[in-house]
Amino acid sequence: MSLDPPTYILSLQNNIRARPISWEGAVRAKTITDADLKKIKSIDKVRKEQRKQTIEADEASFVALLLGADDAQNIFDAASKGKRQDIIQYMLVLTGDLVDDIPSFTKALTKHPRPFAPLLPLLKQSTNPEDPIPLLTSAVLSSLISEALTSQPKQSPQIDEALPQLYAYLSTLAKSSDNGLQDIAVQEYSALLRTSKSRSLFWKQRKETVDPLMEILKTAAGNGKDSDSTLYSGSGSIRSNADVGLSGGVGLQLLYHVLLVIWQLSFEGKLVGEGLDDEHDIITLYSALLRASPKEKTTRLLLSTLRNLLDANPSTLLPAATLAKLPALLQSLQSRHLTDEDLLEDLTSLKDLMEDYTKTQTTFDQYAAELHAGHLRWSPPHRNPAFWRENARRIIEDEQGALPKTLASILAKPWDTDKQVLAIGCNDVACLVKECPEKRGALERMGLKARVMELMADKDETVRWESLRAVGEWLRYSFE
């Protein structure tokens, strides 16, 4: 999928093209050779067709100019030694033009024994995210590596070395507060995520690559870092569409490009699905974004990503989708006047998948699924006395206590940004003790009694109340 170049980069390139360069001074200073200058002038400021003919007539020598050869230094190393930042910038723009305009030359560059080596040091030339040299370098590298991934599999060692470095640099742009820089990062990510190999490497570096993108999506959904519980309230809608819209200054273009990257990543559904939900509650987040989606093109990417993830991880993600009220949301979407054929196909497929799943579920299954999902919400079973009367013993005894052990592991976490999880967990412990007092010893050996007693001192008032109620149930049966 081809995207228009980021405006930020286009403006920078146009500015550099317009600057005069003292090429003869560089020759006199022996920064570049006469032969280098002749090659540069033969393709600089000429018509595209003429440039293409010149390059194709002597491809090898132009590859050597940019990337070096056994008997020649590459232009970037030469300019760096001569401290000619202006030449580095200009040649990066010119290289970008050649790569964009002459596909055969791009292939020739990727066939070089070390096609990325002259460019990688330029990524680290500055820590300023607005510095033009790393920005321009990342654009050239993205194009070259993208081509090499599909056409030059023999360059695998070079790709393995270069791609993590490029991902690390782009992650600094994605973390920026500047939407223009963020958009450069996500567009270049998108150009790179063309193969399973590049997507796997992207996921391997997910703390750098994926996490900042998920923060952008959470911001767009109206869910800041300090209010995680907003998304997990369990209500049908996290906020009104007017509030959710594109919150936090996230523009439609940036939102679309981030969703595109996560969609590309979702083709590795088995690899990334459970991690995305464990680390980012992506099913809940995407359900919130679906409610707020301003355009069919964003809705299409949201649905297609969910379909890829749910198809690849039905046993773990379908329960999470049920808890996020995805079936009702899909029903609501189906009533809209949607025209995109791919969107409608994904919508129908997801709706059928969810209907088939929910037909097989019981209330016990739903509760077990919520525990396995690892993120408790005030779903109906927690406050339903009839549920506990009917299911408490089964919860404790099923699979040798697997469910209360899972509950203990959930309660063991601090949940600093979502204290309601601790409150719900204490509620469940109270209900289990109340309905099955003879099982207190087994529950205590799992660490549940000690943990709810600790939580009596928690800063959160609701947690303190629910933990006190749980301890009260324990003490009530101890004294009787």
UniProtKB/TrEMBL annotation:
It comes from Aplosporella prunicola CBS 121167. PANTHER family: V-TYPE PROTON ATPASE SUBUNIT H. Belongs to the V-ATPase H subunit family. This is V-type proton ATPase subunit H. The lineage of its organism: Eukaryota, Fungi, Dikarya, Ascomycota, Pezizomycotina. Residues 361-479 form the ATPase V1 complex subunit H C-terminal domain. V-ATPase is a heteromultimeric enzyme made up of two complexes: the ATP-hydrolytic V1 complex and the proton translocation V0 complex. GO terms for cellular component: fungal-type vacuole membrane; vacuolar proton-transporting V-type ATPase, V1 domain. One of its GO terms (molecular function) is proton-transporting ATPase activity, rotational mechanism. Keywords: Hydrogen ion transport, Ion transport, Transport. Subunit of the V1 complex of vacuolar(H+)-ATPase (V-ATPase), a multisubunit enzyme composed of a peripheral complex (V1) that hydrolyzes ATP and a membrane integral complex (V0) that translocates protons. V-ATPase is responsible for acidifying and maintaining the pH of intracellular compartments. SUPFAM superfamilies: ARM repeat.
